[in-house]
Specification:
The protein is α/β, with parallel strands linked by helices. It has a domain at about 85-110 and about 225-425: Rossmann fold, CATH 3.40.50.1100. It has 20 helices and 16 strands. Strands 4-5-15-10-11-14 form a six-stranded mixed β-sheet, sandwiched between helices. Strands 9-6-7-8-16 form a five-stranded parallel β-sheet, with helices on both faces. A three-stranded antiparallel β-sheet has the order 2-1-3.
C-alpha cells in the first residue's frame, strides 16, 4: 500500500511512514493511492468474529506488507482488551429501526479510544524497531487529548504534547489529560479556540526545521491510522444488522469530520452504507457545506457539546479530493484559498457527488437538551450531549423501513455531567472501573494562541525528556 498527499507535492510513502508523518510535508493529508476492497463474502464472514479479529482484517487492508499479519493481530488483541465491554463497541436498540453504537467503553470513555489504543501500539512497534524517539503533538476539542495521553503515557519511544482550548472543554475531559504524571506527557491550555489549537499544530508541521528538530508526529484525526481504525466499527455494526445483504444508515456527531469520513472509507471498502448524516451543533460548517455547497468558516460558538465546537473540519479536504476526482492541483488551490479567505465554493459536480452519500444536519442547543430528556423518558437511556445531537439529527434521515439507522454514541454521559444534569435533572453515574480524577493534582501550562510560543515550549520539553 502506498499513500499520496491530497495536495500532490509530496512523494508517495508506505503505511508506517504515513502513520509517523501525520500531516504531509506539503500541507496535505495522506490517502491511499488506490482503494482496497472486500468481497461481499468476506464482509459476511465477519459475523461472529471478535472485534479484534475484524479490526485486524480491516486495518490490514491499509497496512499491506508493512507489518506481518500475526503482529498486527496481536496489537489489535492488546488494544481492545483495554475496553470494559467484551463487545468493545456494542449496539443498543432504542426503537423499531433505531440503534445506538456505543463507542465509549474505552479507558477515557470516548470513541477516540477505539483508534488511539491501537495507534499507541503501532508507534511502539515501529519506533522500537527504528531505535527512535518521536514528539507527538495533538490539538483536542476535548476527547482526543485524553485518549492520546492515555495511549502514549509512559511509553519510552514517544513523548506527547496535548493542546486544548482554555475553558472550552469539560472538567472531566481536561482531567483525563492533566492528571497524568508521566514524564513523557505535557499539556498546554491555549488561550483561544480549538481552531486556534489546530492551526498551531498545522503550522508546526509546515515548519521543516522545527519538525525535524523534535522529530514531530501527529495523532489527530488527520493521521491515517486513526481513520483506518475508526472504519472498523462501521463494519461490526452493519454486519450485526444484516450486512452485506442489508444497507445501513449512519448518523455521526462530528466536528473535525474524521469519524464521518471513516464511514466513507468503510463504504469505499465495500460496506453497503445507505447514507451518512454529518450531525453538528451550531458550529455547522459541515452541515452547511453538504446542504448548500458552500464550505465557509464562521466564529466558533461555545456549546454543551464542546468536542464539536469546530469551524474548520480538517478531514473535509480528504473528501473534497475524492469529489474532484483526485485532482491534487485543484485540492491545493481550494484549501490554500480557504485558509486565506475562510470560503470554499464546492464545484457543482463535486457537491452533487457528495450528496449521493452525505447529508448535513445542524442541531440547536435547545433541541440538544430536549433530546437528552426525551431519550431518557422514552427509552430509559442517559446520553451525552454529542450523542443527543446525533439522535436529534436522526429524525431527519430519509431511509426505507428496511434500512436500520445507527446513531454513533461518541462519549459516555459522565464526561459531561453538568450539561447532562442540566438537561435531565439528575447527574450521570461514572462507570465503576473509571478512576476518580477529581481530587488528583493537575499539570499543564497556559500559553497564548501563538505558534512561536507553543513551539518554544515543545522544543524545551523534547530536549529534556
Amino acid at each position: 500500500m502506498r499513500y499520496v498527499s491530497t495536495r500532490g507535492q509530496s512523494a508517495p510513502i508506505g503505511f508506517l511512514d504515513a502513520v509517523l508523518a501525520g500531516l504531509a510535508p506539503d500541507g496535505g493529508l495522506y490517502v491511499p493511492s488506490e482503494w482496497p476492497s472486500f468481497r461481499s463474502s468476506e464482509i459476511a464472514a465477519f459475523a461472529g468474529k471478535s472485534y479484534a479479529e475484524v479490526a485486524a482484517a480491516v486495518v490490514g487492508k491499509f497496512v499491506g506488507d508493512d507489518i506481518p499479519k500475526e503482529d498486527l493481530a496481536q496489537m489489535c488483541e492488546e488494544a481492545y482488551a483495554t475496553f470494559a465491554h467484551t463487545a468493545v463497541v456494542p449496539l443498543k436498540q432504542l426503537g423499531p429501526n433505531q440503534f445506538l453504537l456505543e463507542l465509549f467503553h474505552g479507558p477515557t470513555l470516548a470513541f477516540k479510544d477505539v483508534a488511539m489504543q491501537l495507534l499507541g501500539r503501532l508507534y511502539d512497534y515501529v519506533l522500537e524497531r527504528q531505535s527512535r524517539k518521536m514528539t507527538i503533538i495533538c490539538a483536542t476539542s476535548g476527547d482526543t487529548g485524553g485518549a492520546a495521553v492515555e495511549a502514549f503515557r509512559g511509553r519510552k519511544n514517544a513523548r506527547i504534547v496535548a493542546l486544548f482550548p482554555e475553558g472550552r472543554i469539560s472538567a472531566v475531559q481536561r482531567r483525563f489529560m492533566t492528571t497524568a504524571t508521566d514524564a513523557n506527557v505535557a499539556c498546554i491550555s491555549v488561550l483561544g479556540s480549538f481552531d486556534d489549537c489546530q492551526a498551531i499544530v498545522k503550522q508546526a508541521f509546515q515548519d521543516d526545521q522545527f519538525r525535524h528538530g523534535v522529530d514531530l508526529s501527529g495523532v489527530n484525526s488527520i493521521n491515517w491510522a486513526r481513520i483506518a481504525a475508526q472504519s472498523v466499527y462501521y463494519f461490526t455494526a452493519a454486519v450485526a444488522l444484516g450486512a452485506p445483504a442489508r444497507e445501513v444508515a449512519f448518523v455521526v456527531p462530528t466536528g473535525n469530520f474524521g469519524d464521518a469520513y471513516a464511514a466513507f472509507v468503510a463504504k469505499k471498502l465495500g460496506l453497503p452504507i445507505h447514507s451518512i448524516t454529518a450531525a453538528t451543533n451550531s458550529n455547522d460548517i459541515l452541515a452547511r457545506a453538504f446542504e448548500t455547497g458552500r464550505y465557509t468558516r464562521g466564529a466558533v460558538a461555545a456549546t454543551q457539546s464542546p468536542a464539536m465546537d469546530i469551524q474548520v473540519a480538517s478531514n473535509f479536504e480528504r473528501l473534497y479530493f475524492e469529489a474532484v476526482r483526485r485532482d491534487a492541483v485543484e485540492t491545493e488551490r481550494a484549501f490554500r484559498a480557504f485558509a486565506d479567505t475562510g470560503l470554499l465554493d464546492i464545484p457543482p459536480a463535486a457537491h452533487a457527488w457528495m450528496r449521493e452519500l452525505f447529508r448535513g444536519a445542524s442541531v440547536s442547543e435547545a433541541d440538544t437538551a430536549k433530546t437528552m430528556l426525551s431519550t431518557l423518558n422514552e427509552t430509559g437511556e442517559i446520553v451525552d450531549p454529542h450523542t443527543a445531537v446525533g439522535l436529534a439529527a436522526a429524525r431527519g434521515v430519509d431511509a426505507k423501513p428496511s434500512v436500520p439507522v445507527v446513531v454513533l454514541s461518541t462519549a459516555h454521559p459522565a464526561k459531561f455531567p453538568e450539561a447532562v444534569e442540566a438537561a435531565i435533572g439528575v447527574p450521570p453515574v461514572t462507570p465503576r472501573a473509571t478512576p476518580d480524577l477529581s481530587k488528583k493534582p493537575e499539570k499543564f501550562e497556559r500559553l497564548p494562541a501563538d505558534g512561536a510560543a507553543v513551539k518554544a515550549f515543545v522544543r524545551t520539553f523534547a530536549a529534556t525528556t
